[in-house]
TrEMBL record:
Keywords: Cell membrane, Membrane, Transmembrane, Transmembrane helix, Transport. GO terms for cellular component: plasma membrane. Its main location: membrane. It is a multi-pass membrane protein. InterPro entries: NMN_transpt_PnuC (IPR006419). This is Nicotinamide riboside transporter PnuC. NCBIfam families: NMN_trans_PnuC. The chain crosses the membrane at residues 46-65, 86-107, 139-156, 162-179. Belongs to the nicotinamide ribonucleoside (NR) uptake permease (TC 4.B.1) family. Required for nicotinamide riboside transport across the inner membrane. One of its GO terms (molecular function) is nicotinamide riboside transmembrane transporter activity.
């Protein structure tokens, strides 16, 4: 357990808690967290995770814009549901990205676990995009991905990060519940 991992984990908890509360400060705090985790994963030779966190950095900026200025032009995006077609297309694209990224990582890098790393990366990107767009379904995907990450990181003895993803799972459950309530109130 490194100081870098402790700081990144702490910021991760704060950022996800703020996301559940729909506080736009989740995005700049998340930007610092994903930057620190990119460095951490580079040192661990989990290169799909490095790539994931680089893209997460861009998505943090996109999410911040969406939540403060996007969609309505009056204070940002509102919580909504993705259509069934959006969900299916998103899952299909994430599966394709997982296969392509896994193949690239397995062939061209010395990545520790190219296939599970690439798969979790691809579906995390889909969940993060859903979060930036305030789609309630993002929380369902985060729950599945976070549970899988707990096992993935525990298997590698990254216990603090595994614990963080356990906490992320609980926060995702809370986010799903709270964002569903927002949808009910808005109707």
């Amino acid at each position: 357990m490194s100081v870098l991992e402790i700081i990144a984990s702490t910021l991760g908890v704060i950022a996800v808690w703020l996301t559940v509360r729909q506080n736009p400060w989740c995005w700049p705090i998340g930007l610092v967290m994903v930057s620190l985790y990119a460095w951490f994963f580079f040192e661990a030779k989990l290169f799909s995770q490095v790539l994931l966190h680089a893209v997460f950095a861009l998505l943090q900026l996109y999410g911040w814009w969406q939540w403060t200025r996007g969609d309505t032009g009056r204070g940002g995006r509102k919580v909504s549901c993705a259509s069934a077609q959006e969900v299916l297309i998103g899952l299909a694209v994430a599966a394709l990205v997982a296969v392509l990224l896994g193949a690239l990582m397995a062939r061209y890098t010395d990545a520790q676990f190219p296939w599970p790393d690439a798969t979790l990366t691809a579906f995390s990107l889909l969940a993060q995009l859903g979060m930036a767009l305030k789609r309630v379904q993002c929380w369902l995907l985060w729950i599945v991905v976070d549970v899988l990450y707990v096992g993935f990181f525990a298997w590698q003895d990254y216990w603090l990060t595994a614990g963080l993803y356990g906490l992320f799972t609980l926060l995702a459950i809370m986010g799903l519940r709270e964002w569903r309530q927002v949808l009910v109130i808005a109707r």
